[in-house]
Amino acid sequence: MARGLLGYGGVMSRTLVIKLTAGAEEPERANQACTVAATAVASGATVSLWLTGDAVWFAVPGRADAVALPHAAPLADLIAAVLAGGRLTVCTQCAKRRDLTETDLLPGTRIAGAPSFTEEILTENAQAIVY
How far apart, in whole angstroms, are the C-alpha atoms of residue 72 and residue 32? Predict the structure, then answer.
């Protein structure tokens, strides 16, 4: 079996779906999720990062810049890496509760709901992680 970039077989053929439920009040958890997503993108994996709850604010320009965590990559840079090579999605209901539309979000961010999330996580060779 061929080995992926990280030494695991099949890394390139799997889709990683990450759901982040923590906002700025939990910077360590938020940064961990985004670090995993950005690292997976850099490894060549197909990555979909879902922002739910107060995490949706990270998709608003400038909001991720306000989160600082010592000894960690800047959250805004990690999100930019995901946008550059993966997919960033904001939960439909979470966006509506905060009066956010796609025009309020970073370019390339989409708004989608549970049916889309369910479809992604049930796709063959998908791995879902929730932070």
Answer: 9
Query: What is the structure's pLDDT at 14?
Result: 84
Is the pLDDT at 31 greater than 80? The verdict is: yes
Provide the token pair at 87. 């997919």
Nearest-angstrom CA–CA distance, 70 and 78: 15
Confidence at residue 12, expressed as pLDDT on a 0 to 100 scale: 52
Neighbouring C-beta atoms of residue 65, cutoff 10 Å? 12
Q: DSSP string covering 46-76, please?
A: EEEEEE-GGGGGGGSTTTGGG---TTS--HH
Q: Answer for the pair 75, 58: CB distance below 8 angstroms, yes or no.
A: yes
The answer to whether 105 and 60 have CB atoms below 8 angstroms apart is yes
Contact indicator for 22, 54 with CB cutoff of 8 Å: yes
Measured CA to CA, the distance from residue 57 to residue 39 in angstroms comes to 21
> pTM of the predicted model, to two decimals?
0.89
